[in-house]
Design goal:
With 302 residues, the chain is an alpha/beta fold. It is built from 12 helices and 15 strands.
Amino acid sequence: MRHLQPIRTSAVVITMALLMMPVTTVAQTLERIKSSGTLNIGFVPDQAPFSSAAAEGASGYSIELCQKVAEATKAKLRLRELQVNFLSTTIQAGLEKASSGQIDLLCGAVTNTLKRREIVSFSMPIFNGGIGALMRLDAPPALVRVLNGEEAYSGPIWRATIRQGLADHTYAVDAGTTTEAWVREKVAGLRVIATIVTVDDHEKGIEMVLNGEADAYFADREVLREYVNRSERADELTIADRQFTYEPLALALARNNDDFRLVVDTTLSNIYHSDTFIDLYTRYFGKPSEFTLKLFKIYARD
């Protein structure tokens, strides 16, 4: 038994040393906001109707939600004034800035994924997004049928016919997004011979389709619908009937920041429970279905 004594002593020494070490943590968001009197909101400027650049800094569905969070934060901290700064960014850069505390919230069409949750935290869902495909009206019929979920060619539905309908085309995707990862995975999984081109913004992707440089542009379906509605060449474009994925969109913030996340989720819950939510939703997406309203009630907390 005598040889066990040094091991117990060492363990005690190590434990005491760890307890005496100074604990360093990143300042919590609410503490920083209170001391500085500022709230920094990152937004993606080409994600209408969720977020876009505007004279007052930013506008859109996600921006309105973040503005409500700003009001709730001001009330929570009992601040007389709160300066809200809107900072334009990309999704990938915005996630990194949220992680490091350079921005307090990332507002836009940001998909909540497990991979992204390694570096940031997310609010409760703010919308049910999903990938869509934009094409020219004169796109190859076989491609149109496949992207609409139909048979590429008449006869049995074989993986081979699906590959033939998708092969030898050029697909544009927004760089660094979940859409890019999904398209690459599908093309590789089906062993389709196709070209995938990344773009830095939605306008470029849509321009490539209009100019015949790409056969389809993949992005969030609601974002595509908004661009088509605003395009002067809308009569040349079509969006596939099929929504390829169902993705929860949310607001992103720094991890290990429960106090601020509680303010965010409480604000969203109050909005979803309110009589004004239908008007907010309708202004950007059209009148919500009963199913959609029930889903937001499920998201909300009492």
